[in-house]
Design brief:
This protein is of the alpha/beta class. 45% of the residues lie in helices and 17% in strands. The strands form 3 sheets. A 6-stranded parallel β-sheet has the order 2-1-3-4-5-11, sandwiched between helices. A 4-stranded parallel β-sheet has the order 7-6-8-9, with helices on both faces. Strands 10-12-13 form a 3-stranded mixed β-sheet. The radius of gyration is 31 Å and the shape is globular. The N terminus is likely disordered.
């Protein structure tokens, strides 16, 4: 009897539980909403909205002007709404002027299938372009003096196949005007350059074209690698009244050696941008490399926003935006003439 009562009690309880569950489930064919699934859908939508873009930055050499390009590039992207730590992640690699390492970095960027790559300086750009153009990864170059000679674009003002960027061709005319003003009696101007960097030949040709207008002859010394620089710099300094630098990565990386040999021969060295002046060159009428980087970053932002790279033509930096920098101590040591016009707009460094 006790067993019967207990069994009847359990059956009644089971029936009540079944009815209760049925009430919760509606008609039994329509399950109750899964709030966890809805929350997951919202989170997925938010993640899609807040995509984090993966950008590789390949910098060819370690010197301040290229560092400024990189910082400017990051600033330019940020100004357009692509901010590191929010919706952008950078992979910065520096090959320290090692061509083999530059190629390895390019291959790594291809393998990682980044959303965009910024290549700073010509070797970094050409190495990535050779490996990455078939991978569909947009390439934006910065500080490539002659992208046409480098076979990145067919002509200035146009994009190449998945590539565009900003040239850092130096304002040769303004540099010659500065040199002639500071040393009116100078008739021979030396240029030391890397024979492995085609951009340098382009810049030398510009100097050779314009120098006669100032009564100046261009004297050049080419080097294959850094081991030749001490002898070449000494030889060049013995033949000229002044030396002017290009945006040649090999020479800029070894600027202390060039300055040592030139100073020993009492020959001033003009830089191609302000960082070289800070490091001991007498003066420069050169580009603002941070501004150059910002211009490149703005271009990259257009691509990330969905603009077709083929419609974004390659650009120059406006030569009118050149920046005059004078190393006051070095200028005084060489007795350089600084006219009122130059004195009024120069930025001085010691």
């Amino acid at each position: 009897m006790k067993f019967f009562k207990k069994s009847r009690f359990l059956a009644a309880a089971a029936l009540s539980l079944t009815l209760a569950l049925g009430a919760c489930g509606g008609n039994g064919d329509t399950p109750a909403p899964d709030t966890n699934d809805t929350q997951g859908q919202v989170e997925t939508q938010d993640q899609e909205t807040e995509k984090v873009y993966q950008i590789g930055i390949s910098q060819f050499a370690e010197h301040a002007s290229l560092d400024n390009c990189r910082e400017g590039f990051i600033q330019g992207l940020a100004e357009a709404g692509f901010v590191e730590g929010e919706n952008v992640k950078f992979d910065y690699q520096n090959s320290a002027a090692d061509m083999n390492l530059s190629t390895t970095i390019a291959q790594q960027f291809v393998d990682k299938k980044y959303d965009l790559v910024c290549a700073i300086a010509t070797p970094a750009a050409t190495n990535f372009y050779a490996l990455g153009k078939d991978a569909g990864i947009p390439l934006v170059y910065c500080a490539v003096s002659d992208p046409v000679v480098a076979q990145l674009v067919p002509e200035m003002g146009q994009a190449g196949e998945g590539v565009t960027g900003v040239s850092d061709i130096i304002p040769v005319e303004k540099q010659l005007q500065l040199i002639h003003s500071m040393f009116p009696e100078a008739t021979k101007l030396g240029i030391l350059y890397s024979t492995n960097e085609p951009n340098s030949e382009t810049q030398i040709a510009l100097y050779e074209e314009k120098a006669p207008d100032y009564g100046i002859e261009i004297v050049t010394e080419g080097v294959a690698d850094a081991t030749y620089i001490p002898m070449a710099a000494e030889t060049l300094a013995g033949q000229v009244d002044a030396i002017t630098n290009l945006t040649d990565n090999l020479i800029v990386e070894n600027l202390p050696v060039v300055l040592e040999k030139a100073t020993a021969a009492n020959v001033p060295v003009f830089g191609s941008e302000e960082e070289q002046v800070k490091n001991g060159c007498i003066a420069s009428e050169g580009l603002d490399y941070v501004a150059l980087g910002r211009q490149t970053g703005a271009m990259a932002a257009k691509i990330l926003n969905g603009e077709d790279i083929s419609t974004i033509g390659s650009e120059y930096v406006d030569p009118e935006q050149s920046k005059l920098t004078i190393n006051k101590a070095v200028a005084e040591s060489f007795g350089a003439v600084i006219t009122d016009e130059y004195a009024a707009r120069a930025e001085y460094t010691e």
